[in-house]
Amino acid sequence: MEIISTTKKMQEHADSVRRLGKTIGLVPTMGFLHEGHLSLMREARKRTEHLVVSIFVNPTQFGPGEDFDAYPRAFERDAARAEKEGVDVIFAPVETELYTKEFQTYVVLEKIPKHLCGISRPTHFRGVATVVAKLFNIVKPDTAVFGRKDYQQFVLIRRMAIDLNFDIEIVGFPTVRESDGLAMSSRNSYLTPEQRRSALSLYRSLIEGRKLVKSGIKNSSRIIDSASKLINSHKETDIDYISICDPETLVEMEIIDRPAIMALAVKVGKTRLIDNMMLNPSEGMTDDPSAY
Ligand code: PAF
User: Fold this and answer.
1) Which residues, 6+ apart, have CB-to-CB distance to 92 below 8 Å?
2) pLDDT averaged over every residue in the chain
3) Is the Cα dihedral 273, 276, 162, 253 positive or negative?
């Protein structure tokens, strides 16, 4: 496994792989790799011949007062995990490599960031879209794999790839969960044991939502009420949003008369967690949109 830290070397490497006629898979990450990331790597490996994992804690997607400095970093451990998964290259640039002093060009989507996490994190998706566009130009992948736990991010990147004509297949991989259902996230490492118990209320409220939809309830507000009650009954929880919305546009749906996404963001202690699931009034609920 090679570790590349400059954009020039990464671009040259990508060109040489492409000249050999091999396809490139990219899994963009901010490191602190867990089983969820490893599943994305396995998926990219299945689809392509040369696997690149980027590790970069991207400053432009963190707002003032967010956890950029505290974000967990463990490069040696990450490299060992990636190597075990058969990764060919880790692209790990330093900040100045991606953002020079003169940097001034951002990718801004007009509509998708106006919903869900974009409301309390107004500059987050500008940072995500910008860094992912840069990674696409540097790594030159044929396929890029993202987790659907960050559902809004996945929809945004898919839209950006279409709008900006990136000739890249964007794959959304289902959320990987702990055995009790908690969605895997690098930020779970911030949780105390008690907060970890409270964090499970996110998954439980989604499952409860599914049951309600299965039982024939179509009114989003009833499902959101029930989720709020469940989450609020746990210690140290502070709901940012619970939304039932269109899976493409993320516009809220009052009545669940077609597949919808139920998405939520909750602060547990100081840790902001997100999760989501698909609701389908005709089939119950699944987190696999390919089912539709
Ligand atoms: O999902 C993440 O880890 C990040 O948002 C991403 C896609 C690597 C961009 O920094």
Assistant:
1) 3, 4, 5, 54, 55, 56, 75
2) 96
3) negative
pTM of the model: 0.96
Residue nearest ligand 1's atom 8 by CA? 29
- 162: burial class by Cβ within 10 Å (0-12, 13-18, 19+)? exposed
The per-residue pLDDT for range 244-277, each reduced to its tens digit, is: 999 999 999 999 999 999 999 999 999 999 999 9
φ, ψ dihedrals at 231, nearest 5°: -70, -45
**In the prediction, which pLDDT does 105 show?**
98
Output the six-digit token pair for 155: 């929809």
131 in ligand 1 pocket by Cβ < 6 Å?
yes
Give me the domains of the chain, ranges plus CATH numbers: 2-173 (3.40.50.620), 187-284 (3.30.1300.10)
Residues forming the active site: 37
Reported as a pLDDT band with limits 50, 70 and 90, residue 282 is confident
CA distance 94 to 9: 13
Residue 33: closest CA among 23, 41, 21: 41
Identify the burial level of 115 via C-beta atoms within 10 angstroms of its C-beta, where 0-12 means exposed, 13-18 middle and 19 or more buried: buried
The pair of three-digit structure tokens given for residue 203, joined into one six-digit string: 């998954």
Model confidence pLDDT, tens digit, residues 82-108: 999 999 999 999 999 999 999 999 999
Residue of 37, 54, 58, 151 to test ligand 1 pocket, by largest number of atoms within 8 Å of CB:
58
Where do the H-state alpha helices sit in 173-219? 193-214
Proportion of the chain in helix, strand, coil states, percent, rounded to 5? 40, 20, 35
